[in-house]
Specification:
Chain A: Belongs to the binding-protein-dependent transport system permease family. The structure holds two protein chains of two kinds. By secondary structure, chain A is mainly alpha-helical. In chain A, 75% of the residues lie in helices and 0% in strands. The chains are: A mainly alpha, B mainly alpha.
């Protein structure tokens, strides 16, 4: 990178921020001086129009276009449901769908379970803050960074060489033969899933921990006086008390998992039978030039997310009514 | 997490978050040991398991190239060695084969800062209008914006790219003609894409916060003759700072860590592409150059980790609030 490049970049950022501030400031200045008649409408337009225009042009219209695109082939000719037929008949595409299902079942279940257990175990313990920060840290790391971290763990060195990947070293210590983990189907899908679990557990833990602290101590003390053991208190008092947060955590992780792209892209690029819908959508639309198939995959993704979101919204509404 | 910082109003978890404040201070005084010995062991094991991968990468990034690729990082005591060459090489080297991360690091910053500010300003304006300007159809429109959260950004990518190529590209070329220092391939598409994808969630969250400002405050100002513009800048924005901060941190990290939007809208050149994209490329083409990959990964992690450890409590709020983004 030369100094001129750097200067060009700084000009871009500063220029863009200045232009943005100028436009907003100017509009604001003008709006306060709008004709008295209908001034409220002018002001309303100023406040709300930028957001609505961007959403209309950048989200609503493209979403409709994608829906239409899904019924065309790579040269834009209408082909009916052919792309969807492709998706549900081609073995490779079926593996992609199957993998996505495995991801969305395994990741939310395990990361919520571990996150909940951990949150309970460290609750009110000494150094709780640090315990939390350690498990929560992966949340701040990019999926790409996480992908590299875990590729290093799964690294493979052939035959007599020393292993530099921790997993293979453990296998060797136990007397086994090193494995090319990421190339070996179907275990590679589960190894990628571990990365996602590693990231999402912290999220589950933080939210559930806050929820656990919200369970009234009186209830727990009352249960203690009744002679219940720790497990009974957990299942009969704590779990019902945090049900709302549990739903939020599980649905949120499910949605994030359905859309997982970066991990697969960085670690295997979807090769060796590890592809998932979001990755395949990118590969088809932007690498293979099959925009119709990409669009069809995006729609399937949308349809898979939809019920989860609707369920989540309904739960939210119920909780609001209770309050 | 139970410090008394003003909370973003988070649907579903808000009640708990409020109670935490009261319970948290009580329990803070009675610090107990971990519930039992098994629990202690289990949580220690989890904590170690969760930290070990990052730690291994961190240690490795300081080891000489020869040692990284022949011995495991856990043998560092038998095979000692410390060097900063890996970092020097990925950041400063100008040779063709090196990752040259310097330019990409600047790109990541240049993308993330405006892509945080733009949606924040636009969304807070819209949130104010939804909360405090009465107009016909306000409720229905707000529900529509809220509903847009369920559209995965994958659904918008292809047409949006086509639109950018058709509309934005001539503008970028013209700008390049005008100021040659700015490359024809510039940040504009990435900024716009991130801004659009952030809006539904941002508007929803900031609306929740802004609408809870006591109406007497706003009405008093309006009666005194303040325009909506004045109320927004003088009263609403200062009061909404905690919510704005939480969302800003969350959005910054989201943009910094993003790969998909960057891959599609940046074009992949050192002029625009962020660190994540360069890293993904490196793992694809040089997956065994661990001396470079480890250092490169840490270069990309350092900003999020600093943000995370210094602003953890705000970050938690952003996450709690932003959990349905995308």
């Amino acid at each position: 990178m030369t100094t001129a490049d750097l200067l060009g970049k700084i000009i871009q950022v500063v220029g863009a921020l200045a232009a943005f501030a100028l436009v907003i400031g100017l509009l604001l200045f003008l709006i306060d001086r709008a004709p008295k008649r209908g001034r409220d409408y002018w002001q309303l337009t100023f406040f709300i129009a930028p957001a609505l225009l961007l959403l209309l042009a950048g989200l609503i219209y493209p979403a409709f276009r994608t829906s239409l695109l899904a019924f065309t082939n790579s040269s834009g000719v209408y082909v009916g449901a052919e792309n969807f037929v492709w998706m549900f008949t081609q073995p490779a595409a079926l593996i992609t769908l199957g993998n996505t299902l495995i991801w969305v079942v395994v990741v939310p279940t395990i990361s919520t379970a571990i996150g909940l257990g951990y949150a309970v175990f460290i609750d009110k313990s000494r150094g709780e803050k640090y315990f939390k920060a350690l498990v929560f840290m992966p949340m701040a790391i990019s999926f790409v960074g996480a992908g590299i971290i875990w590729r290093f763990i799964y690294d493979y060195k052939s035959g007599g060489n020393d292993q530099i990947g921790l997993l293979n070293q453990i296998v060797v210590w136990l007397g086994g033969q090193p494995v090319q983990w990421l190339q070996t189907s179907p275990i590679n899908t589960f190894l990628l899933i571990i990365v996602m679990i590693w990231i999402q557990t912290g999220f589950a833990m933080v939210i559930l921990s806050a929820a656990i602290k919200g369970v009234p101590t009186e209830q727990i003390e009352a249960a203690e006086l009744d002679g219940t053991n720790a497990w009974q208190r957990f299942t009969n008092v704590t779990i019902p008390g945090i049900r709302g947060s549990l739903v939020v955590v599980i649905t949120t992780i499910s949605i994030a998992t359905l859309k997982v792209f970066d991990i697969v892209r960085t670690m295997t690029a979807g090769n060796f039978n590890t592809s998932v819908i979001a990755n395949e959508m990118y590969t088809q639309a932007f690498r293979a030039g099959e925009q119709g198939r990409g669009a069809a995959l995006a729609i399937v993704l949308f349809l898979m997310v939809l019920p989860i979101v609707i369920y989540n919204v309904r739960i939210m509404r119920k909780q609001r009514e209770i309050r | 997490m139970s410090d008394n910082v003003v909370d973003l109003p988070i649907v579903g978890t808000k009640k708990n978050a409020l109670e935490v404040v009261t319970v948290g201070t009580k329990s803070a005084r009675v610090k107990r040991r971990l519930t039992s010995r098994t629990a202690t062991v289990v949580s220690l094991v989890i904590a170690i398991l969760w930290t070990l991968p990052t730690f291994g990468l961190f240690v490795s990034s300081f080891r000489p190239a020869g040692l990284i690729t022949t011995t495991g990082w856990w043998t560092i005591l038998q095979n000692p060695g410390f060097t900063l060459d890996n970092y020097k090489e990925v950041l400063l080297s100008t040779s063709q084969s090196s990752p040259q991360l310097g330019a990409y690091f600047v790109n990541s910053l240049a993308i993330a800062i405006p892509a945080t500010i733009f949606p924040l300003v636009i969304a807070s304006m819209a949130a104010y209008a939804f909360a405090w300007i009465k107009f016909k159809g306000s409720g229905a429109l707000f529900v529509l914006v809220f509903a847009l959260q369920i559209v995965p950004l994958q659904l918008a990518l292809i047409p949006l790219l086509q639109m950018f190529t058709a509309i934005l590209k001539p503008g970028q070329e013209a700008l390049h003609q005008l100021i040659p220092m700015i490359p024809a391939q510039n940040y504009l598409p990435v900024w716009i894409a991130h801004t659009i994808f952030a809006l539904p969630l941002a508007i929803f969250l900031l609306h929740n916060f802004i609408s809870e400002i006591p109406s007497e405050v706003i009405e008093a100002a309006r009666v005194d003759g303040a325009s909506h513009g004045q109320v927004f800048f003088r009263i609403v924005l200062p009061l909404a700072v905690p919510a704005l901060a939480s969302f800003a941190i969350f959005q910054f990290l989201w943009v910094w860590n993003d790969l998909l939007v960057a891959l599609i809208f940046s074009g992949g050149t050192p002029d625009v592409a962020p660190l994540t994209q360069r890293l993904a490329e490196l793992t694809g083409t040089r997956g065994q150059d661990w001396q470079r990959l480890t250092a490169a990964a840490f270069v990309s992690l350092i900003v999020p980790l600093i943000v995370f450890f210094s602003l953890q409590r705000y970050f938690v709020r952003g996450l709690l609030a932003g959990s349905t983004k995308g």
